[in-house]
Amino acid sequence: MSTLTFHERPADGEPAGLLVLHHGRGADEHDLLPLADVLDPARDVYVVGPRAPLTLPGLPGHHWYVVPRVGFPDPESFRNAFGALAEFHDSVWERTGIAPERTVLGGFSMGTAMSYALGLPAERPVPAGILAFSGFVPTVDGWEPDLAGRRGLRVFIAHGRGDPVIGVEFARRARDLLEQGGLVVEYHESEVGHQIDRTHLPAAIAWLEATLGPGEHDLRSE
Questions:
Q1: Each residue of 152-183: pLDDT tens digit?
Q2: In terms of pTM, does the model score above 0.85?
Q3: Which pLDDT tens digit goes with each residue over 21-80?
Q4: Are 105 and 200 in contact (CB under 8 A)?
Q5: Torsion over CA: 28, 170, 164, 154 (sign)
Q6: Residue 205: what are its φ and ψ, rounded to 5°?
């Protein structure tokens, strides 16, 4: 059983799939739940938001890992978060009966890094898709993406060119890496800073509906 605190929003009726939203640095499990209501206003999707396991002296909220340098998580705290989050995902799949291939892993900022971290390596199940707002594919000792095993995986990336925290080059680098690996990337940029741009949300809503729609999870086996 997972030890992570979480908040959830069940679907109204039989869920079309599962959306796991990983919050950013210094936030908590409630932070992205309003985003769920925007992305899924009909409440067709079961939504879960876990709380990161780490608290740091002098810094508010909860964190997935220590940040010595943007894009390069501290290996020890990253491994601890990876293990805790893997256990959490496994427990949610077992408890809800919703399979990994009907699951979108999403997040903002540091939470996006954790969505990539759990959605891309060979040792973890392949999800239906990854929803990546203002984040990056992490570079960390002991972790690497299995792009060959993720061919056809759907990824939505949105980032602001004015982001002073995580520069837009991280999003462009992720897009290029994943496209070259054969993943199906939908990419959006705008002039905003470190935030989710509302102008990207209609595209994200359509992407989520398509990703969890009938047959979309079979793309990787074609």
A1: 999 999 999 999 999 999 999 999 999 999 99
A2: yes
A3: 999 999 999 999 999 999 999 999 999 999 999 999 999 999 999 999 999 999 999 999
A4: no
A5: negative
A6: -60, -45
| Separation CA 116–CA 162 (nearest Å) | 22
**Could you list the residue range(s) of the whole structural domain that residue 176 is in?**
6-196
Which amino acid appears at position 45 of this protein?
A: V
DSSP secondary structure, 70-136, as one string = TTB--HHHHHHHHHHHHHHHHHHHHHH---GGGEEEEEETHHHHHHHHHHSSTTS---SEEEEES--
- Asked whether residue 177 is assigned to any structural domain, the reply reads yes
Q: Any idea what the CATH number is for the domain that residue 114 is in?
A: 3.40.50.1820
In a domain, 127, yes or no: yes
Distances in whole angstroms, Cα of residue 28 to Cα of each of 11, 76, 111: 21, 21, 11
Residue type (1 letter), 162? G
Query: Is position 192 within any domain?
Result: yes
Domain assignment of residue 27, yes or no: yes
Structure tokens at 53: 């396991």
Q: How many domains does the chain have?
A: 1
